[in-house]
Amino acid sequence: MNEPYHEEVEHFYTSDLKKPPVEKVNVWPCTGRSSSSSGVSFSCPHVFFCLSLLCQIGNLLGHPQCLDYGPPFQPPFHLEFCTAYENFGCCDQERDNSIAAKYWEIMDYIDPQGHKLCGAYIKDILCQECSPYAAHLYDAENPQTPLRNLPGLCFDYCSEFHFNCHSAISLLTSDKHIQECCETNKTRFCNLLNLHDKDYCFPNVLKNTALNRNLGSVVADRKGCLQLCLTEVANGLRNPVLMVHANDHTHRMFVAEQLGVIWVYLPDGSRLEEPFLDIKTIVLATPWIGDERGFLGMAFHPKYRYNGKFYIYYSYMDKKQVEKIRISELKVSASDVNKADPHSERNLLELEEPASNHNGGQLLFGVDGYLYIFTGDGGKAGDPFGKFGNAQNKSALLGKVLRIDVDGKSPDGKPYRIPPDNPFVSDPKARPEVYAYGVRNMWRCAVDRGHPVTKKGRGRLFCGDVGQNRFEEIDIIVKGGNYGWRAKEGFECYDTKLCRNSSLDDVLPIFAYGRNVGKSVTGGYVYRGCESPNLNGLYIFGDFMNGRLMALQEDEKTNKWKKQDICIGNTKACAFPGMISSYSKFIISFAEDEAGELYFMSTSYPSAYAPHGSLYKFVDPARRAPPGKCKLKPVPVKTKSKRIPFAPRAKTILELLNDPPTTQPPAKSSSPTGVTRTLSSKKAKTTPPTKIKVSAVKPASAGKKTQKIKAKAKHHKPKQKMKVTKVSKTTPAPSLTKKTPPPTRTKKLPQRKEQ
């Protein structure tokens, strides 16, 4: 390689950037590669890091992404300056104002003729920070790569800019080396700004219909599979059956293992060393693969902040060796908010289980404040209990949705009250606790929070009901509803005789699928969080046996639900820091945190004693909320137990792309946000520089005008104008006389935002 050119390239990527001691990932040698556009060859072991990355992955990372490594967003307020990106991009109003101020500072050095000739070029270049493809334009998809000083410009556009305004280069960057080598050499300058893939350079990226057709929407592949991403949140869990929050503004997450242990996870991602509750000596659980017994349900009282009450559902063996289900109430410890008082247990309800399977297990509070209990039909196969089975027998509590008031007591001495509007309180042949019936074994139900603005859908109860041998179904629970089992399975008859005599008023599923899709449904949640606006209204669920993730979208005109598969870990769509490409197969449960973000738990070995379970969080790579909108302010809690920092086990997509095969274990380092980033144990030849920080702050007033920005930028003394001489197309623009340009602003390492 030509050494002077090598130095120019390296200066272009590293000028004005501080170099902290950051561990580098190893790069593969790629001697003899060349840039197809410039014809410049290089030897990879001696070249700067960014070109090494391009050798490995080419244009795999060309996807919408901002300079803070997050997806683009819809600005909450109108952009006055970079108006091309006011509908979707990487700038909020505050950042837009900052870019406008920088523009006017530069233009103060240019005479009126230069304004006309170069103003549009300079504005275009500065505003590429707001492009939805800003990270790609600046080679910033990966935090480990150096950042360009200037965005990637298409060669023709760059040539025009250099021909007309080459003297403005020193105003856009203060790097002396680039100024000296490139102000008079168009080819060198435009080769530096060249991008590996021509579709993404500016302004081609604006004209590419394939890139912009569905920009900002949930990405779907050719088969219609929704492309979502995951982050690993917890690991080493023994069959994690649930995650719940206390709705007490602390944003703690309580994760329960099937054998009867509940762990506390704090907002920074750490876990407390001592469990919230440990009743594994009471809970009936075995190491058998697929055993359905154990700790199965938990719900916090709606007024937990004030009364400290919560409720649990678990299997146990009584003194007569009879298997039972117990639903009981406990309280938090008076001396430690992160510990339950095991001696406070108050039994609410016990049910004898005739078989070891179909144990139900869901507990939740509805928007009405009542506790809903979801029981299985008693087990075995085909609900063989009694003439019509437990599920159709309203005098039995198995195969039901029960509703009770835990804040009262019944006149007959029961430790709970029957809500007066329960549907069968006047039926002498029915148990008054019954709210709905005809269910087989509902595994995981959830309450819809409703649309964030309109609250439409609020209070709906979604459940996944596991089928016998033909169909799995998703139901919405309604008061008094008969869900058909054992007469029906999904939309079809199961017991032909019962089916012929069944009521026409049976509640049909909103969706059912056969064994060609999956074998054991795991119910999920309707997404109502803040961080991924595109997902609002999607019901996301999965299948335990084959690990399939799916989503249902309601057609509001027909009230029909359309199913789409979810594909995780696409190398291109999910090439963001912290995103992973795979998950453990057996999907046990879904969860929602206090902010409404969605998670699921799965394991690679479904045994209650096997520590192979993990917790994952869904992320939409196509669009996020505007910076600052989803910022959490957790109420602090005192912790007496030791905090164990989260240590990820899954390799991120960027690590898989960057790291060659190695037998050495990766070194780990924790970031200030509590998210641990795993780096390769091998180091590259050079240290990557610090990246530019794109501010993500509260937007300024929406009424602020560009003229005010300009006036604010002119508080300094008037500067000598740069004279621009109009030139013909055959005569290169002369060097322009100018004062010392304004100092380049300090560029800081961007922090990952916890929204």
Task: Produce the secondary structure layout.
Layout (H helix, E strand, L loop, with lengths): L2 H12 L34 H9 L35 H15 L4 H15 L7 H4 L17 H11 L3 H4 L3 H7 L3 H7 L11 H4 L1 H4 L13 E12 L2 E5 L8 E5 L3 E5 L5 E2 L4 E2 L16 E6 L3 H4 L1 E9 L5 E10 L7 E13 L9 E4 L5 E4 L25 E5 L29 E4 L4 E6 L13 E5 L5 E7 L10 E2 L2 E2 L2 H6 L9 E4 L6 E6 L12 E5 L5 E7 L4 E9 L10 E2 L5 E7 L5 E6 L9 E7 L23 E2 L8 H6 L8 E4 L5 E4 L26 H8 L42
Parallel strand pairs: 1-24
Antiparallel strand pairs: 1-25, 1-28, 2-3, 3-4, 4-6, 5-29, 7-8, 8-9, 9-10, 11-12, 12-13, 13-14, 15-16, 16-17, 17-20, 18-19, 21-22, 22-23, 23-24, 26-27, 27-28, 30-31
Helix pairs in contact: 3-4, 3-15, 6-9
Summarize the structure.
It holds the Pfam family GSDH. The chain is an alpha+beta fold.
Describe what this molecule looks like in 3D.
- This protein has 755 residues and is α+β, with helices and mostly antiparallel strands.
- It is elongated, with a radius of gyration of 31 Å.
- It is built from 15 helices and 31 strands.
